[in-house]
UniProtKB/TrEMBL annotation:
Required for gamma-tubulin complex recruitment to the microtubule organizing center (MTOC). Residues 67-92 are annotated as: Disordered. InterPro entries: MZT1. GO terms for biological process: gamma-tubulin complex localization; microtubule nucleation by interphase microtubule organizing center; mitotic spindle assembly. The keyword Cytoplasm applies. The keyword Cytoplasm applies. PANTHER family: MITOTIC-SPINDLE ORGANIZING PROTEIN 1 (PTHR28520:SF2). This is Mitotic-spindle organizing protein 1. It comes from Arthrobotrys musiformis. GO terms for cellular component: gamma-tubulin ring complex; interphase microtubule organizing center; mitotic spindle pole body; spindle. Keywords: Cytoplasm, Cytoskeleton. It comes from the Eukaryota. Part of the gamma-tubulin complex.
Length: 92
């Protein structure tokens, strides 16, 4: 009985029911252009089922995305600076 409290433990067909719920949520997520994959949606559902505030979770996801974009821009800027340095070396 390692699957305590999960839909699979509650009646045999719970696994397919849980998968169907995630599939439906993923379809809605895609329509809303949330860019969340099935795994991320599943983790979010699990967190919410375990008491995490949905609004707080959404805020954390948004903040992580902003930080990821900022880091990506920094990385892109660093790559551009490296390319400029390479061009300067060719002129010598």
């Amino acid at each position: 009985m390692s699957s305590r409290g999960t839909p699979a433990a509650a009646g045999g067909g719970g696994n397919s029911a849980a998968r169907q719920v995630i599939d439906i949520l993923h379809e809605i997520s895609t329509l809303l252009n949330t860019k969340l994959d099935r795994t991320t949606l599943s983790l979010c559902v699990s967190l919410i089922e375990n008491g995490v505030n949905p609004e707080a979770l959404a805020a954390v996801i948004k903040e992580l995305r902003k930080e990821g974009e900022r880091l990506q821009e920094e990385d892109d800027d660093d790559d551009d600076d490296d390319d400029d340095d390479d061009d300067d070396d060719d002129d010598e």
